[in-house]
TrEMBL record:
Pfam families: RhoGEF (PF00621). InterPro entries: DBL_dom_sf, DH_dom, Ephexin-like, GDS_CDC24_CS, PH-like_dom_sf. This is ARHG5 factor. Residues 1-76 form the DH domain. Coiled coil: none annotated.
Length: 150
């Protein structure tokens, strides 16, 4: 998004009739779609092969290898999404001191959300309750509390 030249070239390519007005994202997802279609093809081949034949053994091996490949692809996609979430969060959060590295290979954001903190002022004669928003970010290895910048 920050490179205007790249954006211009990308818009020109995406508007080309050869691309059929498809975005870059749709071209990037095509290999994953093909892999899942191959799985369906192999399932149909396995249904039509004679049980116990050499063809069934080979089709089963191919199917198992494809299953492993699909599982690896899905795990890598999840890992990249998790890393993107951490990068986005690290850009939004300012630490008073940088002793906590938010982005880590093993760290994943599990859940996040806004809560309301209640502050009781016990110094005044009447108990005054004030509220302020806080955010909880639950990672697989720690819990981070944050508040909006004032």
């Amino acid at each position: 998004n920050g490179n205007a030249g790249f954006q211009h070239v990308l818009e020109r390519l995406e508007s080309d009739p050869v691309c059929q007005r498809l975005s870059l994202k749709s071209f990037l997802i095509l290999p994953f779609q093909r892999i899942t279609r191959l799985k369906l093809l192999l399932q149909n081949i396995l249904k039509r092969t004679r049980p116990g034949s050499e063809e069934e053994v080979q089709a089963t091996q191919a199917y198992d290898a494809l299953e492993k490949l699909i599982k690896d692809c899905n795990e890598n996609v999840q890992r990249m999404k998790s890393t993107e979430e951490l990068i986005y969060l690290s850009q939004k959060i300012e630490f008073e001191c940088k002793i906590f590295p938010l982005i880590s290979q093993s760290r994943r954001l599990v859940k996040c959300g806004e809560l309301t903190a209640l502050d009781f002022n016990t110094l005044s004669p009447k108990w005054k309750v004030t509220t302020r928003p806080i955010y909880l970010h639950l990672f697989n290895d720690c819990l981070l509390l944050s508040r909006p910048k004032e």
